[in-house]
Each structure stands twice: as structure tokens, then as C-alpha cells.
From TrEMBL:
It comes from the Bacteria. Pfam families: CCG, FAD-oxidase_C, FAD_binding_4, Fer4_8. GO terms for biological process: lactate catabolic process. The lineage of its organism: Bacteria, Pseudomonadati, Thermodesulfobacteriota, Desulfovibrionia, Desulfovibrionales. This is D-lactate dehydrogenase (cytochrome).
């Protein structure tokens, strides 16, 4: 499975393509390894195709060259951004042009009335940039925290509030496009429009011909208008031909929803929409699905921005989530709910709209009183539950089953009868666990069920269900078979059924005009294979209870520090599922080769930080799985060594301290540049076995004599200096040359605290060092040993306990030692020190990095508040979720730290006075990436404060 052999085994056309693109794409961005390609080719749909070649494109010039090469070699290509699409439009067995990790250009224009975006920008990131202007992009898919602009536009993804009035089609202003022949068009530039019209006369004439044919057929034109009054992403957006006359304007709008089958979208300019500052949401519980739908029909006339429908099965899937009312479990089987939102420019208008909504709800009798919530924490909790419905259902599915989500639209007046009939169809075809939810205000319903595609009987049941759903939606209700998820592969066989022979023929002509050889994402939207939706179904074999609930939605990927280096949580799980498949097939040779490839790609470069669980709708911690894997792979010798170190931990720390002291001395003598060159050479000579030194490495510390500090002020705290801060002092170029415990004692002294140290401090450890390597027994033993010492020091929890680094505190909290009040620096300063200090904010700017452990403990807001109390300006760089240092991983795999912080230097202002965090090893990596000192936030607070 090495890359050379994989390249040699390519079909002739792909081999020629590979040789062609090597002349202008660096080798490190071309992947022909079937192992890696399996990971990169995975998406959120229930289809699995493995690309033969993956190319990580980084510029329009590269994409133009890739397209010209594809045309010359007759090789199909597919474009891919976040891979959150659900209908099979981002998978291929040919060439995958992979954009994630780059293409992040973003420019806000014209007082934020417009925003220019490259395809790799995540939708939520665009909204974050627009938030200060009270603007946002129109599309608001549930996956907006992971979905990227390229996919949002190419799929015409809409969501819960944008409806048909603020989607990509209605808000697109311009695009930059690349076509299959490599030609370029900027629809906002008159010269580019003229040049393209002149160079592509055949395409322009065909667009004009289709426009004129539709205009000459009033019945067809009216049918197109009628079908696009409701949500519709089935087939191409041929409403472009009735909404516009200029062929370039038609072309621009055809790109929306074209799923990469007509051209490559290199940039999108959207007209932004208002983000109302005042919102309120309420859950309305109804006795039946019909009641909920009838309430929605009534609300359609009122001041509501969204109405989200959830059937009883949907509610059951989330009834145990935090914040859900207890009565949810007692709702009758026929019950349903609608989540209603109203938005307004001011508080008075919001209250008036709430009153109006209450009046419109008079058509039904709710099962419980309707209460609108206008505080973000409250209504965001409701909306997060709604956004997580699809993955939550997937999480409780049976082992080996796949999650299928389909997306249909009924005219609003037929919503109630259509929804009830849809429920009956799922039960009749053997999917009683199926749920229905969706954007009821638009008549747009999603239905989710979990077939086992390993069973031919279940595949036939799925086929029969889809056939009957199509018949019902199209023939009886004249609805849409796709409202926002795109046509993809799973609805391509039904496009002609929905649109009829005449309109479908126009779509075939469109595809031919743009892509005569069918090289752009073939098989998607236009497909002659009536069984394509039943082929290449994704296997989901069990791997481990920790990850088996994963539905590969991709929500985890934006926060993963290794996402641009190796693999993401979703990809790791997909690879482990393939390995499970090999083992079940008793392919020992294949499994052994697979495991060898996985070592660096999946395990060694996993930071195991657990941030993936914070954004996963079902809280899957792939880092925990990685630790389990490390534990299973550890041999007897490694386990014996771990046990030996755990029993002699203080001595081991002294050895580490001596080593760091020696390196620090060499740094002072040789200087930073020469020392780094020597470090790189030594690491290369050792084959990567020697950890990489850098100029921000700390000096070593010897065990210090620490006695209780008593001042008789009455306040007491148990202070536990963590093993890393007992071993690692400041770096040579750090701003503050005190040891962390000195700064902490200074701060506690100002706050009037008596300090108590636990006994036997030099040998104590929270166990995180062992846990991260999979040595669970040693980790548990060290944690228990520390807990006992802290109980004695704190008088069995009577006195609060302060850790000076966040990761160690999190590790202990996770073990839930009852009765102990455990706090980390930011939390202790915010809750127990700020009111005892007089703080004078320093001038200039400070950069702050909120560690993974702080994020998981919900301390981000307190971190910002403490920093803002101490500095006139605080910068928290965006898109930096984890530094990737991961304990000692930054020494042994520095490439992980570099990749995780690649975007950091460009976000550090020139006037930055320094950086602050609350984890010593993280601070090493941050300092290296930023080129300036990062230290504990304790130093900052101590420097700015005096006792009250």
C-alpha cells in the first residue's frame, strides 16, 4: 500500500493525469495511497467510494491546471470542501480535489452589505466576522459550524430560518468560476463577462436557446415558477431561466445547487441579511402531528422567522438531554412539537410579536403552557437540541446500521396530511424507529431511519420505501423530493420523475453544454442508472462502543488540531471501520498493512484533546478512543516501564529537570539559532526518536522546599503545583523569569490566602501523563494517590484546592472525586481573587489561548473576563482551538503543533505585549508558533494587581 505501488496500479488515464499534475502541484499535496484516500474520500452520506487520486488544491491556477489535465486525459474530478453533504455528492472513485484546510479568503464590503468568500470558509466563521455589523449570510444549515461556503452554495443549503427568500440563490451577488476547460469567469467583472461570452459562444447560445424555449412555453414556465415557490433542490435550478434574461446572470444562478457538476466555484459574493439583535423562542407541544402542522400553517401568516417540527420519536431521542423538561417522557405517542422563533429590531417590537404569535397559536390547544425565552443561553439550548436531532438518532441506532436522512417538501397547505402519511410509510416498510422533523414553515420535512445495508432484505425495504415516498410526494402532493440537501446520488434516479420528461431533457442539455465529456462530478444530478442510489452503500461495522455511535457527520473536524496534517476524528473512525471490515473478512495481511499506515496518520498525530466531543452532537470523544488504542497496543515491556515510573515519579521528574537544565545551559552558551540547528540535526540522525528542542524550551527546576505559608488572614487554599510546573521553569526569552509557583504565591498573598501544600508533593501526579499514553491502571493509581493527599490537606474538602495548570485539574475533575473543590487558575482568579484585588489594566494588547481543558470545563468566558480586567485589548485568535502540543506530543511530533497553530502568527497584532494561557506545555508550543512569549495568565494578573 505504499505510494509508489499505488501509483503504478492506477488505470492508464489516471496514471497520465498523475504525471501531468506533478509538474505544477507539489508532491506532498498529491495523495495516491488507498489508505489515506479512503479517509479523505469519506463524507456524511451513506455512500462509500475511494478516490484513486486526492489533490489538495491551493489556488485558482492549480484548479485550472487540474481541470485542463482532466479534460486532456478524460479523467473525472469531484470537488470537496467540508464533506457534510448527505446525498452522496462529495464522493468519487476517480480524482478528488480536496479544498478543506485552505481557501479561507474573506472580505467584508460596503458596510457589511456584502461579503466575499472563498469556498473553504466555514459558514459560522463568516457569521462571526459579520456579527459586529448585525449582519449574517442568508443560508443557515444545521451544519453551519462545520459546512463550508463551497458546499453551502453548491448544494443551495438553506436551513431553519432562511427559507426560500434568503438562501444562496436569492442572496448570491457574484461568483468567480473555473470551467472544465480551465477557463475563468468573474461574473462581477464586465471585461471578464465579455471575454467569456466571446470565448464560449456555444455555451452562451445554448443558455439563450433554453431560456427562449421556456419563455415560449407558458405552461412549463409557470410550472417552474410554482415548483420554486417552495424549497426545491431536485435537479438544476432552472428557475434561473425564468428569473433572468442575461446568459451570464442565468449561468451565475445555475451554479447555486449545481453540486460541482457544471463548474468550480472559486469565490462567492453574498448580499448579507440582517441579524436581528432581539430573538425569542418557544417550544409548543401538541397532541398530534396534524395539530402541530395546522399550528404551523397558522403561524405562516405571522411574525415568525422559523417553525421547526419534531415528531414524538424525535422528542424521545433527546428527552434525556440536559435542559429538557421532565414531562417530555410522559407525552402521548401521537404528540409532536414545534419550535417557534420570532425576531425583532428592538425589545418592544419583540414583545408585540410574541403576543401576536400567541394569538395565532389559538388554533390548537397546547399540551403545556407556551413560554417564550429571550435569553441566548435559554433559546440556544433549544436550537442546539433541534440541530442535533439527526446525529442523536444515529447515536442510538443498532450496531452495523446506517443512518439515512431524506428531505422532502410539501406545499404548506398539504403539510399535515403529508407528514402523517410519511409516518405511516416508514412503519409499513419496516422502519418503525424512523423520526420526522424539519422546517415546517417551508413544508420541508426530514425523515430519518436506520437500515442495515449489509442485509439484502433491508436494501429492498429501503428501495421500496423510496419508491413509494417519491410516488406520494410527486404524484399526490406535487412537492419536492429534495428541499435543501441536494440531489446527489440518492435522488438522481428520481429527477425525471419529479420534473417530467421535458424539463429533465433541458437539464441533460445543460450538463452537456457545460461539461460535454461528463468529467465534473459524474453520476450526480444527471444519472441514467436507476439503481445508483442502491450501490456503493457505506458499511458501518462495529469498532468500539466509544465510537460506534458516530454517523460521520463531520461536525468534529473544524476543532481537530490535526485536520490539515493527517486525519480528523471522523476519518479516524472511518479508517477503524474499514480495519474492522478487514478483520471480519480474516484479511490478516491487509489488516497488518492497514495498521502500519494508521500508526502516524491516525494515532501518533492525534492530540487526544477531546475537543471533538464538545462539538459532536452525541459527545463522541475520539481522543478517548485513541488512548484506549494506545493502551491495547502497549506491550508488556512498556507496561512494566510505566509501572516502574509511577512508583518512582519524583526521581523521574528530577532526571527530566536535569536534562532541561543542561539544554538551557547549552542554549545560553550557543545561542538560539545554533542550538535549533543542532536539535534538528540530532532529531534527523535519530530517525525522529530524539524529541525536538526549540528556543522556547523551559529551564529545568529542582525540587523546592515548600512549606505552608500562613498569614493569619482567615482565607485558606490548598495549592497543588502540578508536576509539569514543578519541573519546567521559564524559557530563556520568557517575559517573566519567575517560577510559576512564585507568581502564584505572590497573587495569593495579595488576596490574603494562607497556602497549604499537600504532603509528599514531589511524587504526586494527576495521572494525565500515563492516561494520554493509554496506561489506565497507572493513571488511576496516581490520581487516587493525589486525591488522598489533597483530602488530607483540605480537611476532607473543607478547603478549596488550586491547581496551577488547567489540564491536570481537568483530569482530576473527570474522575469525580466527591467532596473536593478543585479549581484551576482562571476559575480561582475569577471567582475568588478578583474581588480582593485592585487591578490596573496595562496598555497595549495581549493574546490569549484558552486551552482545550478550559473549553471543556466551560471557562472560556471567565478566561476572557480575567484577561480583559488586566489589559486594554485582548485578542483571542480565531480558528485556534487546540495548540496540538498535547503534553509531550509537541516534542515528539512537532509537526502536529505546527499544523494546529499555522494560522496563529497572522493573528497576533504587532503591538502585542505577550501571550497568556494556563498550561505550561501548551505555552511552549504557542511561543514557538507566535515568536513571542506565552506564559500562565497568573503572571499577567500578578503584574497588574495589588491588594485591596
Amino acid at each position: 500500500m505504499s505510494q509508489p505501488s499505488a501509483a503504478q496500479s492506477l488505470p492508464e488515464a489516471h496514471g497520465l493525469y498523475l504525471e501531468s499534475i506533478r509538474s505544477f502541484v507539489p508532491e506532498e499535496r498529491i495523495v495516491v495511497n488507498p489508505f489515506s484516500n479512503l479517509a479523505y474520500g469519506d463524507d456524511a452520506s451513506f455512500y462509500r467510494l475511494t478516490p484513486k487520486i486526492v489533490v489538495k488544491a491551493r489556488s485558482t491556477e492549480e484548479v485550472a491546471g487540474l481541470l485542463r489535465a482532466a479534460s486532456a486525459c478524460k479523467v473525472p474530478v469531484t470537488f470537496r470542501t467540508a464533506g457534510t453533504s448527505l446525498s452522496g455528492q462529495a464522493v468519487t472513485d476517480s480524482v478528488l480535489i480536496y479544498l478543506a484546510g485552505a481557501w479561507k479568503g474573506l472580505q467584508i464590503r460596503d458596510d457589511a452589505s456584502h461579503i466575499r468568500l472563498e469556498p473553504g470558509v466555514i459558514g459560522a466563521e463568516a457569521n462571526l466576522k459579520l456579527a459586529p455589523f448585525n449582519r449574517k449570510i442568508g443560508p443557515d444549515p444545521a451544519s453551519i459550524n462545520a459546512a463550508m461556503i463551497g458546499g453551502i452554495a453548491a448544494n443551495n443549503a438553506s436551513g431553519m430560518c432562511c427559507g426560500t427568500s434568503e438562501n444562496s440563490y436569492k442572496t448570491v451577488e457574484a461568483m468567480k468560476l473555473l470551467f472544465v476547460d480551465g477557463s475563468f469567469l468573474d461574473t462581477a467583472d464586465k471585461a471578464s463577462r465579455s471575454a467569456f461570452t466571446a470565448s464560449h459562444p456555444t455555451l452562451i447560445r445554448e443558455l439563450e436557446a433554453i431560456r427562449d424555449e421556456i419563455a415560449a412555453d407558458p405552461e412549463l414556465a409557470e410550472r417552474i415558477r410554482r415548483k420554486f415557490k417552495i424549497k426545491n433542490t431536485t435537479g438544476y435550478g432552472i428557475n434561473s431561466f425564468v428569473d433572468f434574461t442575461d446568459p451570464i446572470d442565468i449561468l451565475l444562478h445555475l451554479m447555486v445547487g449545481s453540486e460541482g457538476t457544471l463548474a468550480f466555484i472559486a469565490e462567492v459574493t453574498y448580499r448579507t441579511v440582517e441579524e436581528h439583535p432581539h430573538k425569542a423562542s418557544a417550544m409548543v407541544y401538541c397532541a398530534t402531528m396534524a395539530d402541530a402542522c395546522n399550528a404551523t400553517i397558522s403561524l405562516k401568516k405571522g411574525p415568525v422567522s422559523a417553525v421547526e417540527l419534531m415528531d414524538r420519536a424525535s422528542l424521545r431521542s433527546v428527552e434525556d438531554k440536559p435542559g429538557m423538561p421532565a414531562f417530555l417522557k410522559a407525552l402521548p405517542e401521537e404528540a409532536a412539537a414545534i419550535l417557534v422563533e420570532t425576531r425583532a429590531p428592538d425589545k418592544a417590537a419583540l414583545l408585540a410579536q410574541i403576543e401576536a404569535v400567541h394569538g395565532l397559536l389559538g388554533v390548537v390547544t397546547p399540551l403545556h403552557p407556551v413560554t417564550f425565552m429571550d435569553k441566548p443561553d435559554d433559546f440556544n439550548r433549544l436550537w442546539n437540541i433541534r440541530k442535533g436531532l439527526f446525529p442523536a438518532v444515529g447515536a442510538v441506532r443498532g450496531a452495523g446500521t446506517t443512518v439515512v436522512i431524506e428531505d422532502v417538501v410539501f406545499p404548506i397547505e398539504k403539510l399535515a396530511v403529508g407528514a402523517v402519511e410519511l409516518q405511516g410509510l416508514m412503519r409499513r416498510h419496516g422502519f418503525p424507529e424512523g423520526i420526522i422533523f424539519g422546517h415546517a414553515l417551508e413544508g420541508n420535512l426530514h425523515f430519518v431511519f436506520c437500515p442495515d445495508f449489509g442485509s439484502p432484505v433491508m436494501v429492498k425495504a429501503y428501495q421500496a420505501l423510496m419508491d413509494e415516498v417519491a410516488e406520494m410526494v410527486v404524484r399526490r402532493y406535487d412537492g419536492s423530493l429534495k428541499g435543501e440537501h441536494g440531489t446527489g446520488r440518492n435522488m438522481a434516479p428520481f429527477v425525471e420523475m419529479e420534473w417530467g420528461r421535458q424539463a429533465y431533457a433541458l437539464m441533460v442539455r445543460l450538463k452537456k453544454a457545460f461539461d460535454p465529456e461528463s468529467l465534473l462530478n459524474p453520476g450526480v444530478i444527471i444519472n441514467d442508472n436507476p439503481r445508483v442510489h442502491l450501490e456503493n452503500l457505506k458499511p458501518m461495522p462495529p469498532v468500539d462502543p466509544i465510537v460506534d455511535r458516530c454517523i460521520e457527520c463531520g461536525f468534529c473536524e473544524p476543532v481537530c488540531p490535526s485536520r490539515t496534517l493527517s486525519s480528523t476524528p471522523r476519518q479516524r473512525i472511518a479508517l477503524q471501520r474499514h480495519l474492522s471490515k478487514l478483520r471480519r473478512a480474516r484479511d490478516e495481511e491487509g489488516a497488518k498493512s492497514f495498521e502500519a499506515h494508521y500508526a502516524w496518520f491516525g494515532e501518533q498525530t492525534c492530540a487526544a484533546d477531546g475537543l471533538c466531543a464538545t462539538v459532536c452532537p452525541v459527545s463522541i470523544d475520539t481522543g478517548k478512543f485513541t488512548k484506549e488504542l494506545r493502551g491495547r497496543q502497549a506491550g508488556p515491556k512498556a507496561r512494566k516501564m510505566a509501572a516502574w515510573l509511577a512508583g518512582r515519579y519524583g526521581a523521574a521528574l528530577r532526571v527530566v529537570g536535569l536534562g532541561l537544565s543542561g539544554a538551557h545551559l547549552a542554549h545560553r552558551v550557543l545561542g538560539g539559532w545554533l542550538m535549533e540547528q543542532l536539535a534538528v540535526s540530532l532529531r534527523e540522525l535519530s530517525g525522529g526518536r530524539i524529541p525536538l528542542w526549540n528556543r522556547w524550551m523551559p529551564r529545568g527546576l529542582a525540587p523546592a522546599r515548600r512549606e505552608a505559608v500562613t498569614r493569619g488572614k482567615g482565607l485558606q487554599v490548598v495549592y497543588y503545583p502540578c508536576c509539569v510546573t514543578r519541573t519546567m521553569g521559564p524559557a530563556l526569552n520568557d517575559t517573566d523569569q519567575r517560577e510559576l509557583h512564585e507568581a502564584m504565591l505572590s497573587l495569593l498573598r495579595k488576596g490574603g490566602y494562607d497556602v497549604i501544600y499537600p504532603e509528599g508533593l514531589d511524587d504526586l501526579c494527576c495521572g494525565l501523563t500515563f492516561e494520554s499514553k493509554g496506561f489506565k491502571e497507572q493513571a488511576a493509581a496516581k490520581a487516587e494517590e493525589l486525591a488522598k493527599a489533597l483530602r488530607r490537606a483540605s480537611r476532607d474538602g473543607e478547603i478549596p484546592i488550586l491547581f496551577d495548570t488547567s489540564p491536570c485539574l481537568y483530569a482530576m475533575r473527570a474522575r469525580q472525586f466527591d467532596g473536593l473543590t478543585l479549581m484551576e487558575p482562571v476559575e480561582f482568579i475569577h471567582d475568588r481573587l478578583l474581588d480582593k484585588l485592585h487591578i490596573t489594566p496595562q496598555g497595549g494588547t495581549v493574546a490569549v489561548h484558552v486551552t482545550c481543558s478550559s473549553v471543556k470545563m466551560g471557562l472560556s468566558a471567565k478566561f476572557r473576563a480575567v484577561a480583559q480586567a488586566c489589559s486594554e485589548r485582548v485578542v483571542i485568535p480565531q480558528g485556534i482551538y487546540c495548540c496540538g502540543f498535547a503534553g509531550d506530543r509537541g516534542f515528539n511530533h512537532p509537526e502536529l503543533n505546527e499544523a494546529a497553530l499555522a494560522d496563529l502568527p497572522g493573528q497576533i497584532p504587532p503591538d502585542a505585549m505577550g501571550g497568556y494561557s494556563n498550561s505550561r506545555t501548551c505555552e511552549i508550543g504557542l511561543s514557538r508558533a507566535a515568536g513571542m512569549s506565552y506564559q500562565s495568565i497568573v503572571y499577567l494578573v500578578d503584574r497588574c494587581s495589588v491588594a485591596r
